[in-house]
Amino acid sequence: MPVFVDTGNLEEIERFYRMGIIRGVTTNPTILLKDGVRGGMRAIEARSKEIAGLIAPLPLSVELTTNDREQMIDQARMFADWANNIVVKVTIHGPDGELENLAVVHELETEYDVRVNVTAMMSAQQCFLAALSGASYVSIFGGRVNNMGYNVITEITKLRKVLDQFGLNAQIIVGSTREVLNVIEWLDAGAHIVTVTPNLLEGMLVHPYSKETVRMFLRDAAKAEEVLFSELEKVRL
Length: 237
Ligand code: E4P
Known about the structure:
The chain is of the alpha/beta class. Helices cover 55% and strands 15% of the residues.
């Protein structure tokens, strides 16, 4: 399932879903804020249920809004109750490197049967540990990695190799897309999924030379029709 869309905008999701080209949706608090979700948990619930209903049974990732251990478990279970296809996003660690998060991931996956997407990761080694803890998805932020000056492709290749080598089932999601060419390059490097912003999906689809070619076809089709009509006129006269 190679392409997810990275947005909380319902119209954009519907547009690409109707084309049959997306296999899931990812969000985070920053994306939801940008896409107009205001009003706290009630607003997150409403938008998440709308998206989950639209794309079911495809997965929708919704990120926790707390880093308190007990609240993380409660919130994750609540998100998972909103819809069967909700996957809970948990950051690899807390804002100051607090290490409770993978214990939460392990508990959610093994005791509460909640699917988890471990997020905000910048290296293969972080993703490997998240996969070992039982996460269903491990998200590495390709654009942010590249912006730090090292190529995420090296991380993706190593990560896919070790996941396969040790029979770990986690699916690699590469997010933080910045350029159209990221998508095929990162899939080619071994990502199971690339989550793509709507503007880049459109950029993948539309090509100036395709436009010119389509214009040529339509122009010539119209000319051929004119010729056909004038031939018919002659026959009638
Ligand atoms: C995906 O799961 C991430 O939340 C997202 O792609 C992050 O992208 P950004 O680096 O543009 O914020």
